[in-house]
Amino acid sequence: MAIRPALWLGPSLLVSLWGLSFPALLLRRLREHTQRFQESSSLSIGLEGSLGAEPMPKVGWLEQPLDPFNVSDTRSFLQRYWVNDQHRTGQDGPVFLHLGGEGSLGPSSVMTGHPAALAPALGALVISLEHRFYGLSIPTGGLSMVQLRYLSSRHALADVVSAHRALSRLFNISSSSPWICFGGSYAGSLAAWTRLKFPHLIFAAVASSAPVLAVLDFSEYNDVVSRSLMNTAIGGSLECGAAVAAAFAEVERRLRAGGAAQRALGAELGACGPLGRTEDQAELLGALQALVGGTVQYDGQAGAPLSVRRLCGLLRGRGNHSYPTPYWGLRGAVRIVLHSLGQKCLSFSRSETVAQLRATEPQVSGLGDRQWLYQTCTEFGFYVTCEDRKCPFSQLPALPSQVDLCEQVFGLLASSVAQAVAQTNSYYGGQTPGASRVLFVNGDTDPWHVLSVTQTLGPSELALLIPNASHCLDMAPERSSDSPSLRLGRQRIIQQLQTWIRQERQVGNEV
């Protein structure tokens, strides 16, 4: 299969087919937008700089069992992987396995980030593996409930095991080669769990921004957002925190007033439809909350529509485009994000969201919204709420309405969702997984770091917390504007891997 870089360089794929209805969907859109921007920038630089001297990575397909836990089931699917072998120095050199998460993987997955950056120093072969049911690695038969029962983190780990075996044969990898897993966000958890469950196959793991603790009610997310909005090191302030609260209070006041005030609100925020339904009002408030939360989550990253500094400037009436009140600053922020994501208006229809999430045909965009919702309903939860009085946003949407989506889309009761979250933590160990040779990397600006491992748990279960760094920022392509603490963090990662590999080789030589 030929590689077509243009598929990854164009901004058109960033446009959501479903709009910005459900708050979690908006966070996913911001993630996809930021990731695609970084990928396209890195590929463009690589292509221009190489002038054809460096080959593009190779793409391949592995035939994987659909149900790896049932040997009598012969059904299979094709799983995509990418390979960058330009830094490989020998058959017994390290293998860097970049695990995919809840989205598609392109060629940049083996050309940028930790694996590609560290490969020259260690002579590593770099491989990335797309997650089953995402991107182009979707089994035939669509996304019905019958099919989705084969989608879970445990299935993904089983795919790594069979991929390890198949790729070792395909690329003539020595049995003594250390395999090191990398991943960010959910894929970071997978990297840690792969080392935890299969230490005989995976030598070590680097887990970036990995939320290893599953939670039903993720209220801590907005606790971190609130603190970050007041963090002067990234452009926040106490006044900014107060301005956010004032802006949301004004939105709620207009929603309650109804009539002309409500219609004006919809027009000013660029709403796609009327705001008369209570459930749609909750979705709007959740979308606005996700806009602010997403700004914090991806603060300082190339491609992010807003930074904390710029958002605070808008809300406080500072900068080139000053606004008279925090509400008008929030309106300006909405317009910036909509423009960046290619959206003409802000959609928040609960009924449209449910209908679109019920669609069982894979989406061409490969965003995987239905699949990821299924995983939150059957494994992780991660439903962001704002029910604490100190939270600056609206208390809507509340937890019940978010969990209800599992029943509306998949027929899963709230009790089963809570039980699934508990089972996930029991199986993997939550924030005390008990793995060895795992380095957990987080930024304290990232709202997800509170679900990760941020303190070293043992001699080889290590944690690195980077000050003022956002979600997976350590994995982003290096920039001249990177902070000294981020640069030191990246150095620490390679030094730790070199130490583990050296120690292992010394043991092997002694034997």
Describe this structure as you would to a colleague.
This protein has 511 residues and is an alpha/beta fold. It contains 17 helices and ten strands. The longest helix is centred in the first third of the chain and has 28 residues, at 23-50.
Jot down its keywords.
10 strands, 511 residues, disordered N terminus, 46% helix, eight-stranded mixed sheet
Average pLDDT over all residues: 89
CA radius of gyration is: 23 Å
List low-confidence stretches.
1-21, 47-52
> Helix-strand pattern, N to C?
HHEEEHEHHEHEEHHHHHHHHEHHEEH
3D shape: globular
Q: Helical percent range?
A: 40-55%
Give me the side-by-side strand order of the main sheet: 1-2-4-3-5-6-9-10
Terminal residue distance: 44 Å
Main sheet characteristics: 8 strands, mixed
Strand percentage, roughly? 5-15%
Brief write-up:
This protein is of the alpha/beta class and 511 residues long. 46% of the residues lie in helices and 11% in strands. It has helices spanning 6-9, 23-50, 113-122, 145-148, 153-170, 186-197, 220-229, 238-257, 259-268, 278-297, 308-315, 326-340, 350-358, 369-380, 399-410, 414-428, 484-510, and strands at residues 58-65, 76-84, 95-99, 125-129, 179-184, 204-208, 215-217, 381-383, 438-443, 461-466.
